[in-house]
Amino acid sequence: MNPARKWQKTDPGLRSHPAFIDLVEELGSTPLMVDGLLSGLWRMAFTEAKDGDISRFKPRVLARMLGWTRDPDKMLNALISSGFVTKDLQIHDWYEWGGASLTNTSRTKTGNEVATLDGFKEFWSVYPRHEARAKAELSWKRLNKNEKVLATGVAKIMATLVASGQKEKRFVLHATTFLNGRRWEDWRHGIPASWTVKADTGREHPPGPGKWISCIDGPSVWVPEGRDANECELERKEQEMAQLLATGVDKNGNPPAPEGKTWKRLYDIVTDRAAWELCDD
Fold first, then answer.
1. Phi, psi (degrees; rounded to nearest 5) at 125
2. Are both 169 and 221 inside the same structural domain?
3. What is the 8-class DSSP label of residue 193?
4. d(Cα 20, Cα 29) in Å, to the nearest integer?
């Protein structure tokens, strides 16, 4: 039997939940209509968003799928602010509620279920970021054999770049996003620009072991093995300052001020901008 038609887990106390009450108030609707909206959301996800990800649907399309005839943007914003949908457009606690039957089915791993997860263990072992495995498994099942091979191959390259310090793990996409977005295709012509070391470092890859460290307020800095990252960043800033002063301008990029004048940063309330201007000492 189709799990979507078999059962849907619901909470008998849903209508008395604060989030439900907030949703009713934000939509200016009735408990009956909001109950139907949420039921429609969960039923739709059984067939159209099995991983609980509704980010690919535009608000008006989503509203039509859920049978909501009022303002679609207001509907989606209310679902997010009340907590039924997360800010990144994932159905909150999907695997605990509506998706429980799908998760239970995949956990049996019998018959065709085993085949659909074929190769996932290898992909998961090399993918640099390990979060939301259940969601990633559902996304993996939708790929064909060739797509799984490509995804795993790219994941191995990504893991190598993360290990070398060229990309921080926290900036790597979640595996579900990577698979749903077919992001292995970004690597068809080589390493994407977002994975290469910043070009504004002005340096070639230095010899010897070490790694690039991303800096919030400037270009990446090369940190040789055994050196402190903060010391290397300080050296970089000192070198940049020396180069700047050698060009005849100050640290703010202004040329030398004439005698009796000085550069001051002034704020213009009309243009709502700040700028350096020559002023009397």
1. -70, -25
2. no
3. G
4. 11
Measured from the Cβ of residue 281, the count of other Cβ atoms closer than 10 Å reads: 8
What are the pLDDT digits (tens) for 240-272? Answer: 666 555 555 566 666 676 777 776 766 555 555
Q: Is the pLDDT of residue 279 over 50?
A: yes
What sign results for the dihedral spanned by CA atoms 181, 184, 189, 195? positive
The encoded tokens of residue 137 equal: 């498994």
**Residue listed under structure tokens 């939708």:** 142
Q: How many CB atoms lie within 10 A of CB 126?
A: 15
Note down the domain range covering 224: 199-246
121 and 75 in one domain? no
CA distance 224 to 222: 6
- CA-only gyration radius of the chain, Å: 27
Q: Which residues contact 244 (CB under 8 A, 6 or more apart)?
A: 250, 251, 253
* In a domain? residue 90: yes
State how many domains the chain has.
Answer: 3
What is the reported pTM?
A: 0.38
Question: Which residues, in sequence order, are bridge partners of residue 280?
Answer: 261
Mode of pairing for the β-strands spanning 210-215 and 218-224: antiparallel
Residue 156 forms part of a structural domain: yes
Domain ends where: 153, 172, 195? 195
